[in-house]
Structures are given as C-alpha cells and as structure tokens.
Design brief:
Keywords: Endoplasmic reticulum, Magnesium, Membrane, Transferase, Transmembrane, Transmembrane helix. The chain has seven helices and eight strands, in the order ααβαβββββαααββα. By secondary structure, the protein is α/β, with parallel strands linked by helices. It is globular, with a radius of gyration of 22 Å. The strands form two sheets. A six-stranded mixed β-sheet has the order 3-6-2-1-7-8. A two-stranded antiparallel sheet has the order 4-5.
Length: 278
C-alpha cells in the first residue's frame, strides 16, 4: 500500500513539474511574440535608434567592458539563429568589445550557425578568425556626437570599426588540452620542459596557454564574459583552460534576447567583483 501511494505521489509530482514547465514555456513564447510584434510594427530606423539609445545609456554606466565575449549555445536551443547573432555582433561592436567567440553545440540541420556564412575572411585572418561587419565601414559610434566623452577607454568612438570573430568547435576543448599535455609529457626530458619545471608554476601555465593558442588558430585574450543560451548554466566543454576566470550569465532558452537583455548582462558583469586572491 505504501509503495503504491509513493508511486502515485511521484507521478503527481511529475505531472506538476511538467505542467509548470509547459506554462513557463508558453509564457516566454507569448512574451517574445508580443515584443517581436512591436519590433515589426516599428520601422527599422526607429528600432536602430532605440537600440543606440539603450547601448549609449549602458556604456555610460559601465565601469569595465569585456574585451572578449563568448556565446555558448546549447544543443537543444532553437531561438538563436543567424539574424539574432548578427544583432548581437552589432551590439558588441557598439559597446567596444573587440572579440566575440561562438560555441554552437547544435548540429548542422538543427540550427547550427556557421559564421563563415555571415562574415568574410580577409588575407590577414588566420584559422577560424573572421571579421564583422562583413564590409568594413564607419561604426555606429562614429555617427554619434563627438563631445570628448570617455567611455571605458574609448574616446569619441575611436575603437576598431570591426570585430574579431572566432568559431569554436567541440574539438577545441578537452581534446586540445590532452594533446598539449601529451606533447609536454613526451618532451619531459628536453631542456625546455626541465627549465619550466624548475621555475614557478606561472611559467608552465604561460607555456600551456601559448601552445593552446597556437592550436586554436587565433590570438585573443581569455574571454571575460560568457552568455549561455540554455535552460541551465552549462559550458558544454567550452575551452576549459581559457574560461577559467570567465563570468558566465545564462539566458534561458525560449526567452527573447534583445538589446535590453544584452545591456542588462553587461551591467551585471560591470558590477561583479572578481577576486584574484592571495
């Protein structure tokens, strides 16, 4: 009797959790539909002017700006497409971010976005490094009034008019670290490895970072900020060595991501205090 009662209570609890999940998804989709409908009703010029105002207000509040932003997309996310990524790249360009990396865990045919289809590769590009916007031109900041206001190290919109974009694959994670460690172990008798072992730990750390960067095929600072598009916070094996000190923020799948959401994440990152300790 007790076993039957426990089984019944378990099924009721399962139904309640499923019902809550369904209502949550419906609420998020309805909210996204309403906001998107409002965006469609507005003209493109009006929408871009609104985005510039929101980003300008965001820049005025930031005490620090990430130089490298990484976007992590879960294997089951269906809301992040090429159009949304293009808008995120524009937002990042406006606030002065220099590098954006994309780590899309979806498969081709299930929403995977290849940045090579969005961007062009120049002769100076190496590996998976691309440029945004595809055609170099004046940034939106250059069209704003130049009153000498300093914003996070950039004066009068004088930062680079193009983003450095990087596509990260699953093979760039743990497998890459394993290859580097294997190479160091195989060369453990060499003068280089022996000298690293005799020095402080920081020397070996720098050597591993340099070897990983060469294998990645692009040069970029370690990401300071990560946005995870998923129901739960999970990095899905994203560059475990490079993301040691990354501040991750999760944007739930199904929820609308717009300029307000982007600005809110930047402001949260700006307010967070990272302790490097001794």
């Amino acid at each position: 009797m007790i076993e039957v009662l426990c089984l019944l209570l378990g099924r009721i609890l399962l139904l309640l959790v499923g019902g809550y999940e369904l209502m949550w998804r419906l609420r998020e989709r309805l909210n996204a539909l309403v906001v998107r409908s409002y965006d469609l009703w507005r003209s493109r010029a009006a929408r871009e002017a609104h985005e510039r105002r929101v980003l300008a207000d965001c820049r005025s509040q930031l005490t620090k700006t990430p130089q490298h932003l990484v976007l992590v997309i879960s294997p089951v996310d269906a809301g992040v497409d090429a159009v949304l990524l293009s808008r995120i790249f524009d937002f990042a360009l406006d606030v002065g971010i220099k590098h954006v990396s994309l780590y899309d865990r979806r498969t081709k045919g299930r929403g995977y976005v290849d940045m090579a289809d969005l961007c062009r590769s120049t002769s100076a590009d190496t590996g998976s490094c691309l440029k945004w916007p595809p055609v170099a031109g004046p940034s939106k900041l250059e069209n704003q009034p130049k009153n000498g206001q300093k914003t996070n190290g950039y004066v009068n919109g004088s930062h680079s008019p193009q983003l450095q974009l990087h596509q990260i694959s699953a093979s760039d994670g743990h497998a890459l670290i394993a290859d580097v460690c294997r190479e160091l172990y195989e060369g453990r008798e060499t003068d280089l490895v022996q000298s690293l072992l005799k020095q402080k730990r920081e020397a070996l750390t720098e050597q591993i970072s340099d070897m990983l960067s060469k294998r990645l095929g692009f040069e970029a600072p370690e990401p300071e900020l990560g946005i995870v598009f998923a129901r739960q916070t999970c990095t899905y094996g994203l560059l475990p060595w490079h993301a040691r000190f990354t501040e991750f923020h999760t944007h739930p799948s199904g929820r609308l991501f717009d300029v307000e959401a982007f600005a809110s994440i930047l402001c949260k990152y700006s307010r967070c205090e990272q302790r490097w300790g001794t």
